[in-house]
Each structure stands twice: as C-alpha cells, then as structure tokens.
Write a structure and sequence with these properties.
Length: 270
C-alpha cells in the first residue's frame, strides 16, 4: 500500500521545474522591438483602467524616498534613489506580464486577477528574483554614496540649491556626474541582464529563480545588440514619463511592462 501511494504522489515543484538547457532561446531583430511596443500599447489600451493603483504605488515610492533624502540631509542621494527605481521596475511590471499573458488566452482580467500568480508556484521564484533586484538597488545606493564622499569628502550640502550649484560649477561636481552615471550604467546593465527575461519566464514556466536568471543572462548575451537598444528605449520612455512629475509613468510604465512580455514571447520558444 505504501508503494502504491508513493507511485501516485503528487510531484513537487522541483520535480517539474525546467532546466536552463530545456528552454530554447531565439534570436530577435530590431523590428521585433517595435512590434513588441505595438503589442504593449494594444494591451494597455485594452485595460487602461487597471493601471492607476500600480502607478500610484510607484510614484509614492519615489516621492517618499525623495522626501526622506531631503529630510535626512541625504540630498546627494535623491537622484540615485529615484533613478535607481528602474532597477526594481520588473517587480512592479510582473502584474502587467500577467495581464498580457491572460489576454493572449482570451481571458478578461479584472484588477485583482493580475495578482493571481501570488497563489501559484510562480510566486516563490518571483519573490526570490524581487529580493535580488532589491539588493541590487541597495548596492547601487551604497555605491552612489561612496562616489559622493569620494568626490566631496564628508562635507554635506547645506541646501538643495547649494548642492545643485556645486554639481554644475565645480570639478568635484563634474566628477560626481561622470562617475555616478558610469556606475549607474553598469548597474542598469546588470539589472537588465538579470531580469529582462527572468520575471516573465518565472511567471510563465515552472523554473527556479536561479534558472530564470541564468536563461535571462543567456538571452541577453545572445541578443546583446537588440536588447541594448531595448534598454535605451526603456530608459528614454521612463525618463520622459518621470520628467512630467512622474505623471507620465501612468502610461509609460504599463506600456513598457506589457511590451516586455511581448519581447519575452519573441525570445523564448513556447
């Protein structure tokens, strides 16, 4: 009897997980990016009313961090705090991935349905990936602080105006801009390699977080030129949205989230 029960035992998540070698990666071209953007725009147009709460969360997160920076004499970290939020964008975009995935299946989604993955086996790897991105974000802030003190020493700006004046009128300020942007680019580069495919893959297929990251890195290196262009497009659109006092993110973020799902579909074979 014990043997018979063992034979019909439900397989664990680890037993059904795909390995990195079982997931096939395609080469894509630039035209695939534009098709993905169109697909993302169509997905957003189908369900634009379900977006505001996510964007409100994202915007408030950026605002609270900025207010904290100014309130705690950390004005020099205000820009890295807000700019670095792009590192954790994939966490928020997971809900958009789910919307696009269900729309492919012809399912009409409500707001709460976009978070149904929380109750599935996908949640654990997505949570693990989210922790990795949060750690990357914290590491970026730590590096930004090191760069600041390396340029200006222990002297803190007395006001926001004083900091901006030093930033654009002194050699130290120029160094901070150069090195800060260079290191920020490296962090953004790493974040994209780790996450561009990992989050939608973890949502779509039974994989562990390490497998999802491994496949994402492999997909990124295999499509380096095209995905580098995609990274530039993402930054440009997010910058434009943020320039409108973050209000523009109410459109930019969901479209990019949906579009990234379509990029994933083009890279990973079903």
């Amino acid at each position: 009897m014990a043997v018979m029960m063992h034979e019909y035992e439900k397989p664990s998540f680890e037993d059904i997980c795909l390995s990195a070698d079982e997931i096939k990666i395609r080469k894509i071209r630039l035209k695939d990016l534009w098709q993905s953007l169109r697909g993302g725009t169509n997905d957003y147009s189908a369900k634009p009313h379900s977006i505001p709460l996510l964007i409100l969360f994202y915007s408030l997160f950026a605002l609270l961090f900025t207010l904290f920076a100014f309130g705690q004499q950390l004005r020099y970290l205000a820009f890295p705090m807000v700019a670095g939020l792009t590192l954790i964008g994939p966490i928020i975009a997971t809900a958009f991935f789910e919307m696009s995935r269900q729309r492919e299946r012809g399912v009409e989604l409500g707001w709460r349905d976009s978070f149904r993955f929380i109750h599935t086996s996908s949640f654990a790897p997505i949570l693990a990936l989210s922790l990795v991105m949060m750690l990357l974000y914290i590491a970026w802030l730590y590096m930004a602080e090191l760069i600041y003190f390396g340029m200006f020493g222990a002297t803190l700006p007395v006001s926001a105006a004083d900091f901006i004046n030093q930033l654009y009128s002194t050699r130290h300020g120029g160094g901070l801009i150069f090195y800060g942007n260079f290191v920020g680019f490296l962090f953004a580069f790493a974040a994209m390699a780790f996450s561009v495919i990992a989050f939608p893959l973890a949502l779509d297929k039974p994989v562990t977080s390490s497998t999802a990251m491994s496949v994402s890195i492999k997909a990124f290196t295999s499509n380096f030129y095209v995905l580098a262009v995609w990274g530039i497009v993402v930054v440009a659109i997010l910058t434009l949205g943020a320039a409108l006092f973050l209000i523009g993110l109410a459109v930019a973020l969901p479209i990019l989230g949906h579009a990234t799902w379509h990029v994933y579909r083009k890279i990973i074979e079903p």
